[in-house]
Structures are given as structure tokens and as C-alpha cells.
Amino acid sequence: MAPERIPVTQRYAELLIKAGEAKRAIRAIERGWALAPHPDLAALYLKASAESEPLKRVGVMRKLAAQKPDDIESHLALAQASLDAGLWARCAVICRPPAAAARRSAFAA
Predict the structure, then answer these.
(1) Three-state DSSP class for residue 57
(2) How far does Cα 29 stand from its chain's mean position?
(3) pLDDT of 77-104, one tens digit each?
């Protein structure tokens, strides 16, 4: 398997989920995300987790985003999960530009 190839990773994970191998699918998606984050992988990750409660899905997405925390796709996936859970303030913090976050923390110190 070549996890840096999004379609390959996606199809492989879909087949694993269909075969009842959700944990293996999650690991495959995490490896793929670490190399090339993509929104389709985020959606598939949530499907593989089988978590339906919006607040818990934020935690699931945090785990995926941790694979490549500085990538914009990680921020977007976590922001979307936060929006879906109604965590508006959390989403605003995630979406804040780095310069604004740095200024805010400088004033807080």
C-alpha cells in the first residue's frame, strides 16, 4: 500500500471497513494522513470510527489531526467536527490565523 496516494489509501480503508476491519482501516488512514492529509480521508476516518455522537467525533478528529498537526487540512477537519458539535468558540480558535493567535498570547502573558 502507498499511503501517500490518497485514492489508494481511501479505497484500501473502504475495503477494510466493508470487511469489518475498522481498526486496520483507522491505522491505514492515520498513516496516509501523516503523509498527505485530505478531506476525503477525514470523512472516512469518522466513518471507520463508527462514532455518531458529535462531541465524541471531535475527539476522534483530534486523534487524526495529531498525525500532522501543522497541516491546514488537520485544522479544517477539526474545525468542521467542532462546528458539527456546536462548539463555535473552539472552531474560531482553530481557524484563527497564526499571527492573531501569537498576538493574543503575547497580551495574555
Answers:
(1) helix
(2) 10
(3) 999 999 999 998 888 888 887 655 554 5
Q: State how far the Cα of 108 lies from the Cα of 26, in Å rounded to an integer.
A: 38
Give pTM, 2 decimals: 0.82
What stretches of 1-109 show up as alpha helix (H) in DSSP? Answer: 6-18, 22-35, 39-49, 54-65, 72-84, 88-95, 98-108
Q: Which residues contact 88 (CB under 8 A, 6 or more apart)?
A: 82
Tens of pLDDT, residue by residue over 21-49, are: 999 999 999 999 999 999 999 999 999 99
CA angle 72-75-80, nearest 5°? 125
Per-residue HEC secondary structure of 40-54 comes to HHHHHHHHHHCCCCH
| Per-residue CA distances from 37 to 1, 57, 67, 89 (Å) | 16, 18, 9, 24
